[in-house]
Amino acid sequence: MDRGKYNIKAVAALVGLNPTTIRAWERRYQVLDPDRSESGHRIYSDNDVAKLRWIVDKQKEGLSVSKAIQLYEMPVNRAEVPHDYGVELRDQLFQALTNFEERHAHDIMNKAFSMFSFDKVIQDIVGPLLHEIGVKWESGEITIAHEHFATAFLRARLSTLSLQMPINPFLPRIVCVCAPEEEHELGLLFFTLYLRQSGFDVIFLGSGIPVQDLVTVTHQLQPKAVILSCTLSDHLPLLDEALARLMSDFPDLEIGLGGYAVDQLPERYGPHLLGADDQSWKSWLSRLTPTTGV
């Protein structure tokens, strides 16, 4: 199914029409039937963009709008691979971040949010970008300096956005933190945003803190769950220590684990593993909300 991802401003820019014209065509010709966001705004798909482009091109050839639409509905071959501008912006953002061009990176993010829906930016631009940065760091294609710069930039932008996300009062509090001495926050940052999108009250602590400090903070915050992320296997001993302390001091606490190091040891951390996709996350989180789900 071709999902909606572009707001009307983005579509207008992509096809060379103004929003008023697009809305008029929808009313007069029923040319499109866009999805609606939760707030009621029109959300258009790649197929919608391709259709409008085709009609605009026929207009330039001299056809009326009504005739172009009529021709479009005929069973002729109009095969066209729609261009996903989100991929293009994601590539531009990766280049800006790995070149340490902070101002340019902000401009690209501003453009993405002005053109696309929030879900589109997070799921198709930010999420894959975080993954790409992590993979390239692990393979040695970029340095730890690049990863830290990208993390700091995205954390600042996403923290601002997360403040705009409403908290569902029926969902519990979750603390997200790296394993002690672990500094790689990218995966945890994205999972935190996923939780906030779902309405959870999330406390993001970022880089790992000493075990005793984690215990102290958990006493203070009284969360329903603590999520620990561990990327480097060197930090597994301290992760195990933190896991043992939390399980001992907070027997009712749900503890989730993610990150490359723990994902390689499913037999060791199985019940705590979050998984790596939306379905796995929902399944794990369902244990926090047994009556309502996520």
Automatic annotation (TrEMBL):
GO molecular function terms listed in the Swiss-Prot or TrEMBL record: cobalamin binding; DNA binding; DNA-binding transcription factor activity; metal ion binding
UniProt KW DNA-binding keyword: yes
Alphabetical list of InterPro entries matching this protein: Cbl-bd_cap (IPR003759), Cobalamin-bd (IPR006158), Cobalamin-bd_sf (IPR036724), DNA-bd_dom_put_sf (IPR009061), MerR-type_HTH_dom (IPR000551), MerR_fam (IPR047057), Meth_synthase_dom (IPR036594)
Record-linked CDD domains: B12-binding_like, HTH_MlrA-CarA
Gene3D superfamilies the record matches: 1.10.1660.10, Cobalamin-binding domain, Methionine synthase domain
Entry keyword set: DNA-binding, Transcription, Transcription regulation
Name of a matching Pfam family: B12-binding
Domain B12-binding: 171-294
Keyword match Transcription: yes
Domain HTH merR-type: 5-74
Domain of life where this protein originates: Bacteria
PANTHER family to which the protein is assigned, alphabetical: HTH-TYPE TRANSCRIPTIONAL REGULATOR MLRA-RELATED, REDOX-CYCLING DRUG-SENSING TRANSCRIPTIONAL ACTIVATOR SOXR
Protein name in the entry: B12-binding domain-containing protein
Species this chain originates from: Exiguobacterium indicum
Top-level taxonomy: Bacteria, Bacillati, Bacillota, Bacilli, Bacillales
